[in-house]
Specification:
By secondary structure, the chain is an alpha/beta fold. It is built from 9 helices and 10 strands. The relative contact order is 0.14. This is Glycosyltransferase.
Length: 287
């Protein structure tokens, strides 16, 4: 108990796991990968996994800490959002209550997972009786919006996202609606940064498939590294949630990590985190 357990969902974008798993591998005690036993997406479409991926996974797993978890995650009577939430709950139950239950998507890459775990360990006492002391742990996305000819466009403000909990009573996706503890940690999130073909496929098959606004795709196609300052409001649901973009002059994810660590603009700030956490503490003080 009180282990660092990390869970992933494997689907059509499984190749991205080759970028998402390595950053968390060393500091995790065990890694679980949930796979639909019939290879179905939440939209009811079949996906296939090239056998070479499993060869890579076996060769990479030198410490024998990765477990494949097969189950039926496609339920036609549920919405895609409900299936997303259900699968995450089943995966966390498999990972085991009493451990830190960290869920990372295939397109999310921790910049410093060891640092995230070090901060998380300060709250290990919440694992003693998790059902009575439910919390959820947030880090911050740095959202990669689009690959351009020479670099990467990204949303220029880190955005909070839930990554871990001690008790997986998920209400939507990996959110539990319990008290949030914010940690000083950035996670690169590829989100909508795909080829046009891959993005169109994702928009049809992910859990937000009915939420995407009509203007999103047209704007995504038009924006590039020379004109991005001429556009605003980029989010695929409520556009103004992603106000403006900035630019990394590289397409290499490892180089992007170095840029983020060196950027003063992207630092979260101790006072910012203090007030975020104080607000959550006060909000749940009498609950």
């Amino acid at each position: 108990m009180k282990k660092i357990h990390v869970g992933f969902l494997l689907s059509y974008d499984y190749e991205l796991l080759k970028l998402a798993i390595p950053p968390v591998y060393k500091a995790s005690d065990r890694i679980f990968i949930a796979i639909d036993e019939n290879s179905m997406t939440w939209s009811g479409n079949k996906f296939t996994v090239d056998p070479s991926f499993y060869v890579w996974l076996k060769e990479f797993d030198t410490d024998n800490k990765i477990e494949l978890y097969y189950d039926n995650f496609y339920v036609p009577s549920l919405t895609t959002t409900q299936m997303d939430t259900r699968e995450r709950k089943m995966l966390s139950d498999k990972m085991g209550i009493g451990n830190w239950l960290i869920q990372v998507d295939s397109d999310e890459y921790f910049i410093d997972f060891e640092g995230f775990v070090k901060q998380l360990r300060k709250y290990d006492h919440y694992l003693d009786n998790p059902e009575k002391h439910k919390i959820q742990i947030a880090a911050f996305w740095l959202i990669i919006y689009k690959y351009t000819e020479n670099g990467i466009l990204y949303v220029d403000k880190p955005m909070k996202s839930i990554f871990a909990t001690n008790y997986p009573n998920y209400k939507a996706f990996r959110r539990t609606n319990e008290r949030v503890i914010y940690l000083d940690s950035l996670v690169l999130h590829e989100s909508v940064s795909r080829t046009e073909e891959e993005l169109r496929f994702k928009l049809k098959n992910w859990s937000h498939n009915t939420h995407v606004n009509d203007s999103f795709m047209d704007k995504w196609l038009k924006v590039n590294e020379t004109n991005y300052k001429d556009f605003k409001d980029f989010y695929y649901i409520e556009p103004d949630r992603w106000k403006t973009l900035d630019y990394f002059p590289t397409r290499n994810i490892e180089e992007v990590k170095k840029y983020t660590q060196a950027s003063e603009k992207l630092k979260l700030g101790k006072m910012y985190l203090f007030f975020k956490n104080f607000g959550q503490w006060f909000k749940f003080l009498f609950k």
